[in-house]
Design goal:
The chain is mostly helical and 188 residues long. The protein contains ten helices and no strands.
């Protein structure tokens, strides 16, 4: 179990955007937000970089969840694996904790680990986006729906690591959230 958790964190340290940046000769940490995630990769390098980064970061998290099921660990153990792969992405040791913001990794982990809650989160995102008109702010509603879903389904003991991951992701997005709020509501 400890080896599984260590592997999860180390797998999370594989930052797809960093590798795509190296391939394209671009240090993404020196451009725009400096973030090593799909959004910054797409903004700096292009749509293909966004797509490849998103897929790579989602797949690494899904692979950790798959591995936990393959090794027949308890749900909570696999959930901690999901949290740790996301932590590895958010806080890679080899980059002094300056990784991505975790959305793609969370999507990959939650789609495989809690598909029903992922579906709720996705539907809420689709319903709120036309009104909120900000992906960042809509993400708040979608992730709140995910956490509420954990309580409704009653699987808090097994799924608490994914709720913890949401709070870490929101903390990483705090500046984006503040900026989106300001842009959205200062016009009113």
């Amino acid at each position: 179990m400890i080896l599984y958790w260590m592997a999860a964190y180390l797998i999370g340290n594989f930052l797809t955007a960093w590798w795509i940046g190296k391939w394209k000769g671009v240090d993404l940490q020196q451009h725009r937000s400096g973030n090593l995630g799909a959004r910054n990769a797409g903004a700096v390098i292009g749509k293909t970089a966004f797509l490849l980064t998103f897929i790579g970061d989602a797949l690494k998290a899904a692979a950790v969840i798959w591995l936990g099921y393959y090794l027949e660990y308890a749900q909570w153990v696999i959930g901690v694996g999901g949290l740790l792969v996301i932590c590895g992405h958010l806080f890679p040791f080899w980059l002094k904790g300056k990784g991505g913001k975790g959305i793609a990794s969370f999507i990959g982990a939650s789609l495989y680990f809690t598909p029903e809650l992922f579906a709720i989160m996705f539907v809420v995102f689709l319903l709120f986006f036309p009104f909120v008109k900000s992906a960042t702010l809509t993400m708040l509603f979608a992730m709140a729906a995910y956490i509420i879903g954990i309580f409704i389904v009653g699987e808090m003991l097994d799924w608490w690591p994914m709720a913890a991951a949401i709070f870490l992701i929101l903390a990483k997005h705090r500046n984006d959230i503040a900026e989106s709020f300001h842009q959205r509501f200062s016009k009113a």
